[in-house]
Amino acid sequence: MSIRSSLLAATLALATLGTAHADGLRPIQAKSIDLGEVSGVAYYTVERDGFHVVTTLAQGETGTPIRVVSVLAPGQSVVLSTSQQPRALEISRAGNEVLVRKTAAVTN
């Protein structure tokens, strides 16, 4: 591989590191969630009225778990965040696919 090809490959690799990355999720496949002091898992099931996204979160190992169920139609999303973190996690439905990606926290 020439030096020019190596530089081009390295440039492309570095450029992709800065872009938003969304992970695809399959039905019943658990996805770990880390929001700093709050963490947990999320998964979804396919139902007649939409995709049921089930998220269970707790603060630390001794915190009381909280379970949230969101029903997503195509084009809808749910954002999970805490007041301590500048980042959030967005779970969205695009057609028949569920995507999970980090995003900026929404502030009011």
TrEMBL record:
Signal peptide residue numbers: 1-22
Keywords noted in UniProt: Signal
Superkingdom: Bacteria
Record protein name field: Uncharacterized protein
Organism: Bradyrhizobium japonicum
